[in-house]
Known about the structure:
Strand 1 and strand 2 form a beta hairpin. It is globular and about 50 Å long. It is mainly alpha-helical. Helix content is 69%, strand content 3%. The chain has eight helices and two strands, in the order H-H-E-E-H-H-H-H-H-H. It has one domain: Arp2/3 complex 21 kDa subunit ARPC3 (Orthogonal Bundle), CATH 1.10.1760. The mean pLDDT is 87.
Amino acid sequence: MHISEGVLPPVTLVTGYAASAIGIGIGLRRxxxxxxxxxxxxxxxxxxxxxxxxxxxxxxVHLVLNxxxxxxxxxxxxxxxxxxxxxxxxxxxxxGITTLGVxxxxxxxxxxxxFLIFSPLLxxxxxxVFLTGFLSGxxxxxxxxxxxxxxxxxAGSAFFTASTLIFASNVPLMIIDGLVTALALQxxxxxxxxxxxx
Length: 198
């Protein structure tokens, strides 16, 4: 879900950087020594998971796992995702520097949403971890696809069709991401359940 350089208008780019800066600022205030290693590991996981890209118009489709990152990183998800996106932009030209703020916001805000909505369910034993993981993964990619489509729509009417197609192309990814997140959380719940607590 990287938007390429030269597509978005300046106002969208500035808004994306401003919103992401707020998210990073909150994350830095909540970053403790205990969360530092976890944030770094989750950033690495996000970097690797989103490495395979399928180009679709001015954006790319790939495994996102922002719901998974959100559940485990909590308020530091903007930091984990931001570092990974910055390295991808600098090393592999995925996305770009001017679109970094928007790309970060598109992926990290749904991750934070996932943490706020679904992490309380991880403490409720009757509610299955697998189902929590699926809902988290599915809804995070769903929200990211909406934000991506909306961001592209700000570039003008020429991108309306592209934004609709990109959202539709992400529907299978929502299901896949939900299943991968569910399986990963179920595995962690079985072998290291303390990782699921913030």
